[in-house]
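User: Can you help me understand a structure? I only have the sequence.
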Amino acid sequence: MPSMCDRNSLMSIPAMLDMFQDAAGIHAGSVGIGALALEERGLFWIVSKTRLRINRRPQVQELLESVTWIQPAERVSCERDWALMKDGEQLAYVRSIWAALRREDFRPGHMADFYPDSDFSIAPPDDVPFTRMGKNFDDAELLGEYRIRSVDIDRGGHMNNVNYVRAMLGCFTCEQIEEMDIRELDMQFILQCYEGETIRFVRRPSADGIMEVGALNEEGRVCFMAAIK
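Assistant: Let's start by predicting it. Here is the structure, written out as C-alpha cells:
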C-alpha cells in the first residue's frame, strides 16, 4: 500500500513493524491470548525485545504474505516470530520476546496460567542472541528530541513500540536513511513513556554495526535502545 512506503516506493521499516504487531494481535486472539482475553484476567501484553532482519524491502503494491507464530513459553515470557514472504522468498523476519503484566502491580504474570499448551510453532526459534547493549550513553551524540503526542499512544496508555522507531528514524534525513541501508534493527523496550513527555535520542558507535541509539526520558533514564546494522 502507498501509505506503507517511503519516498522510493519501498515498504518502510515502521510499516514492517506495524504489520508484525497487527499480525501478532490477530493471531493471539485466534488462540485465546489476545488483548481482550488478557484484559479479563487483568493482564496486558508488553514486548521487551524485537529484532527485525531485512533481506529485501518490497515495492509498493507487491502482493505479500504475512506469517506469525509463537514458541513454547518460559515461566514469565514467550517468543513470537514473524516472516514477510513473497512467493517463498523471506523478505523480512522478526524475533520478539513478550511478557504479560498484571495491571494491579505491573508484575509479570505466569505463562502457565493462560498460555496455550498446543505447539503453534511452524519454525524453530532463531538461536542468534539479541545484541547486548549497555545503558551508559553519557558520551553519546545528541540526535534530536521528540515530544510524545496523542497519536503516539496505544491502548496501553503509553507510547507504542513502533512509534519509538518512527521518532528515531525521524532524526535522520531521507538521504541519511538511504545511505545507512539498514538490514537489521535490534531493539529493547525498557521503560514506558507517556503523552506530553520529551525524549532525547542519542547515538554512539557500534563495534559490529552502524550505530547504537538510545532514547532517554526526562529523568535521563534509558527507555529504548536500538542497534542499527
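Now, to help you interpret it: The helical segments are 13-30, 35-40, 161-169, 174-180. The two ends are 26 Å apart (CA to CA). Let me know which part you'd like to focus on.
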